[in-house]
TrEMBL record:
Keyword DNA-binding annotated: no
GO terms for MF: biotin--[biotin carboxyl-carrier protein] ligase activity
InterPro entries reported for this sequence: aa-tRNA-synth_II/BPL/LPL, Biotin_CoA_COase_ligase, BPL_LPL_catalytic
GO cellular component: cytoplasm
Residue ranges occupied by any BPL/LPL catalytic domain in the UniProt entry: 1-193
Domain of life from the UniProt record: Bacteria
Gene3D superfamilies: Bira Bifunctional Protein, Domain 2
Keyword Ligase: yes
Enzyme type, top EC level: ligase
Pfam families (UniProt xref): BPL_LplA_LipB
Protein name per Swiss-Prot or TrEMBL: Biotin--[acetyl-CoA-carboxylase] ligase
Native source species: Collinsella tanakaei
The entry's keywords: Ligase
The EC number(s) this enzyme carries: 6.3.4.15
């Protein structure tokens, strides 16, 4: 990373290039960076998504990571990615985007395809466990080679804006996402902490999440982490533990963990 090309204000550090904004912010978390610190990179050379999938990171995309320092029970930590996802959607809506949805568990989509992805990673520090929320948004349309076979089509922010809305400045968009992610996360964390250790991780936000979750009451494919087809069924929403509830082709109700399965619309090829 070329640290001579770094600039910062109180809300956002901007780097010219970095391997991964998540890795960079995890390193700074170990060194004592505060809750709410955010890093944006103009390009990433080793961006990644869930299950270490590569994330194409050319110049012009929005690559942002936000540091969170939760004080929650371990069983409640799986709610962090959901709170962050809600925050990202609220930020994009405030910028003028319409018809957004969250594909369980971590993709931001529109009717035209995938707009972005969210990856939350934990890191141990001397101040306790921290979480880094990484967010990649397609500001402009990547080349066709960025799409992997079987994945959703790719769309971009310019195409997601409502008629009459103008493209935001990229740093303004990054600060808006940071602000909404922190607000949504902190509000959820206060509610779930008050409820106590017995509260499920999506306590207080599961209804909002289900209003946004894509393909609810629709036919979906169930895929393994290796993208092998495990079956098909109808998505009946997400439970308070973050599991996708799917009724399979035999009428059996499945509670799927995102560590072991993902969903695609039946028509996606």
């Amino acid at each position: 990373m070329d640290r001579t090309r770094e600039h910062a204000d109180k809300d956002l550090v901007v780097l010219e290039s970095v391997g991964s904004t998540n890795e960079e912010l995890m390193s700074r978390a170990r060194a004592g960076a505060p809750h709410g610190m955010a890093i944006r990179a103009r390009t990433q050379t080793a961006g990644r998504g869930r299950r270490s999938h590569n994330w194409a990171s050319p110049d012009g995309g929005l690559y942002l990571s936000i540091l969170l320092r939760p004080a929650l029970a371990p069983t409640q930590l799986p709610g962090i990615p959901v709170a962050c996802g809600l925050g990202v959607v609220r930020a994009l809506e405030s910028l003028g985007c319409a018809d957004l949805a969250l594909k369980w568990p971590n993709d931001v989509i529109t009717p035209a395809g995938k707009l972005g992805g969210i990856l939350v990673e934990a890191v141990q520090t001397t101040q306790g466990m921290a979480a880094v929320c990484g967010c990649g948004i397609n500001f402009s349309l990547p080349d066709a080679g960025a799409r992997t076979k079987g994945a959703l089509p790719i769309t971009c922010l310019a195409d997601a804006l409502s008629s009459g809305c103008t493209m935001p400045d990229i740093d303004h968009a990054a600060k808006t996402i940071r602000s909404h992610v922190l607000e949504t996360y902190e509000s959820w964390a206060r509610v779930v902490a008050r409820e106590g250790e017995g509260a499920p991780p999506l306590f207080g936000i599961v209804e909002d999440y289900n209003r946004l979750v894509a393909y609810s009451n629709e036919k979906v494919k169930i895929l393994s982490p290796q993208q092998e087809l495990l079956g098909t069924g109808t998505l009946n929403g997400i439970d308070p533990w973050g599991r996708a509830i799917v009724v399979d082709q035999d009428g059996k109700t499945l509670a799927l963990d995102s560590a072991h399965a993902s969903l695609r619309p039946l028509a996606c090829d």
